[in-house]
Amino acid sequence: MYNLQKIKQEFQIWRLICGRFICLDLTHAFCSCLLIYNFRIFERRYGSRKFASFLLCSWVFSALFDTLLVEALHYACDVKVDVLPSGLLAPVFALFVPFYCSIPRVQVTRVLGQFAITNKSLVYLMGLQLFTSSFFMWIIALSGLTSGMLYHNNVFKMQHVIFIPDWVARCGSYTLEPLFSTDEPTLESAVGMGATLDIQRQQRMDRLDQQLLLSQLPHMRRNTQQQGGLLNWNRFFPSLRQRWNANHQADPRSAQNTPANPPQEVSEEQVARLMEMGFSRVDALEALRASNNDVNVATNFLLQR
C-alpha cells in the first residue's frame, strides 16, 4: 500500500516505488488502462524517448507533491492522511495537460440541444470517473496535474533536468520493442456490424477506401520527395469525392439547392486546429478541401503520412 507515514517514519522506500506502480483497485486499473490507450497519440507525436521522459518526470515530481499536499492538509485542516490510492495514477492525470493544450476540440453532436459532445468528452468522463473513485484521489490528481503543467511549460528547465538518456532509450528499443511489436493481421477482420444493409455496405466501402489509401501511401511519399514535399491530396481522396458527388446526384432536392461546382470553403478555425497538431498550413488546407471540410478524415490521413 502507498502508506506515506511508513515511508516517512520507517523509511520504507520500497513502498514509495511499489505503491506508485502496482494498482490494488480494479476500477483504478481499468480506468487507467483506458486513459493510457487514449493518450497513446502523444508517444507518436513526441517520440518514445520524450514520452517516457514526461512519464518519469511527472512520476518523480508528483511523489514530492503528494507529500507536500498531505502535510499541508494536516497542518491547515488537522486531517491526517496515511494511505493514498496506489498505482500509476499521477502520470495518467499529468497527461491531461498536453491533452487539453494540444489536441483540438471537434464537436461531434449535442445532447438536449445545449450540451456539446466533442471528440474529447469520453476521455474527460473517464478521468472524472477515476477522480471520483476514491476519497483521497484528488491529492493524486492535483499532484499529477501540477507536475504535468510544470513539465509541459518547462518550468525550472525540467525537461533538461529529468529525462531518459539516449543509451537507455536504445537499450529499451532493442530489448522491449521485439516483445511488444506484432505483425499486421493477414486476414481481414469482420465487416458489416451496422444495423441495416445500407450501413453495412457503407462500412465495407469505407474499409476498402482505407486499404486503397494505405496501399497508395508509399508511392505518394516517393512522389512527394521528388516533387518538393507536397502531397497531391486530389489523388489521395478520389473515392470520397466520388461518393459525395454520387450522394448529391441521387438526392434531387440537394441537386436543386447545390450548385454544379460548389466552392470548397475551408474554415480558418479548422485550419488552426490542424496547425496546432503540428501540420503545415498548406497540408491542412489541401486535406480539408479534399475531405470536404471533414476535420476527422483530414486529421486521420495527415497522421498517416
TrEMBL record:
Its main location: membrane. This is UBAC2 protein. PROSITE patterns: UBA. SMART domains: UBA. Residues 248-267 are annotated as: Disordered. Keywords: Membrane, Transmembrane, Transmembrane helix. The chain crosses the membrane at residues 51-71, 83-101, 122-151. Pfam families: UBA. It comes from the Eukaryota. It is found in: Membrane. It is a multi-pass membrane protein. The keyword Transmembrane applies. The keyword Transmembrane helix applies. Residues 248-259 have a biased composition (Polar residues). Residues 265-305 form the UBA domain. InterPro entries: Rhomboid-like_sf (IPR035952), UBA (IPR015940), UBA-like_sf (IPR009060), UBA_UBAC2 (IPR041928).
